[in-house]
Amino acid sequence: xxxxxxxxxxxxxxxxxxxxxxxxxxxxxxxxxxxxxxxxxxxxxxxxxxxxxxxxxxxxxxxxxxxxxxxxxxxxxxxxxxxxxxxxxxxxxxxxxxxxxxxxxxxxxxxxxxxxxxxxxxxxxxxxxxxxxxxxxxxxxxxxxxxxxxxxxxxxxxxxxxxxxxxxxxxxxxxxxxxxxxxxxxxxxxxxxxxxxxxxxxxxxxxxxxxxxxxxxxxxxxxxxxxxxxxxxxxxxxxxxxxxxxxxxxxxxxxxxxxxxxxxxxxxxxxxxxxxxxxxxxxxxxxxxxxxxxxxxxxxxxxxxxxxxxxxxxxxxxxxxxxxxxxxxxxxxxxxxxxxxxxxxxxxxxxxxxxxxxxxxxxxxxxxxxxxxxxxxxxxxxxxxxxxxxxxxxxxxxxxxxxxxxxxxxxxxxxxxxxxxxxxxxxxxxxxxxxxxxxxxxxxxxxxxxxxxxxxxxxxxxxxxxxxxxxxxxxxxxxxxxx
Length: 483
Known about the structure:
Blueprint: E1 6-16, E2 22-32, E3 36-40, H1 47-55, E4 62-67, E5 73-76, H2 89-94, H3 105-114, H4 130-142, E6 148-152, H5 160-171, E7 176-180, H6 184-188, E8 193-197, E9 204-208, H7 211-247, H8 253-270, E10 295-306, E11 309-320, E12 324-328, H9 335-344, E13 350-352, E14 358-361, H10 374-381, H11 387-396, H12 401-404, H13 413-427, E15 431-435, H14 446-455, E16 459-463, H15 467-470, E17 477-480
Parallel strand pairs: 3-7, 3-8, 5-6, 6-7, 12-16, 12-17, 14-15, 15-16
Antiparallel strand pairs: 1-2, 1-4, 8-9, 10-11, 10-13
């Protein structure tokens, strides 16, 4: 396929999930072979849906989608499907192919080396950390040797070394690539342009240039549109005032007044439909459980994983009210395993004080029942059921009338994250355990979430590889498992 060949073309494509949930409305764009494109849009705008339309797992309601017939597509989704968690590494990679691949082991070793992961082929997928699973997802796409590589939030759960490795890989990648990510520095290192899916108009805007140039271009365009509209508004008011003045004079002046009103109406029609910015969630607090006294959590020993082997380490960790602990270390060392054991009460070497409510934000959202509606999930977590309070909190997290009646399993990953934060707010825990809470979350929400965590008055354990997020939160202790 020649470099200038069209790989993908959408021509006035429309798609909706039922009457109340439009995703695309006559969206059009074209991508050439070898292009590296960022896909932007608010949580729930339909970015993953667009990728599924490209991959062929969804069909458009109207319009046409052209995919080069010689284009082999591989799609690394945000998370490994739950039904694949019990597979071995070998079985996981075998599922990437429609036919049986003989002597697949060398192929697996090659792609694992590309993503900088050592993994025994017999190891079960669910035993890998979130960051290791992110690398397995990328490897599962690469093993198919695609012409178009689709990556949906590939940096989620990755530590700095993992992001650096992925960045270098994509900078040197010579084939077509579409990426969804909220990591601006990561995107700016390799992107040729941006597709912006507007959650309000359901149209797609296409921009060329590196990520920061495009973002600046969008901001500049919006500012110019606002200024142009302000000028129109000023002239409209002046014409209406003149029209009223001449209308009161009577006679031939009424004809002048009519012309003034017509001119004002023309200007109203000429006003630019300024693209609205993504909404950010409202500022919020996570109220701490009342009457927190003394030691809330103590840890005297923990298990770390090196070269897939567990090792016991002695530690002395004690958390009281308003004390925040940052748990650090590379992917696969055992951070999520430790958090899970603490939240479930199964850790033999840690003690949570009696009566303490534990609020647990899991990176895979498995604390949420995907069959529950958002309404039932939020109401269920409240000690005192109050419909009005619940709906007020929900609206602050952009949970609207449509979304509150939807099943959690039908939401985007970003929307699930907002539901998880709404639940923590309603739960009012004494101990807050957060495992990569920035994953899937729109960048506009992150400063608001950081402020809420900074102000939290209970005990807190945080795992996050996003340093600029962590820097906004007061941290009293750091436990680095690598050291």
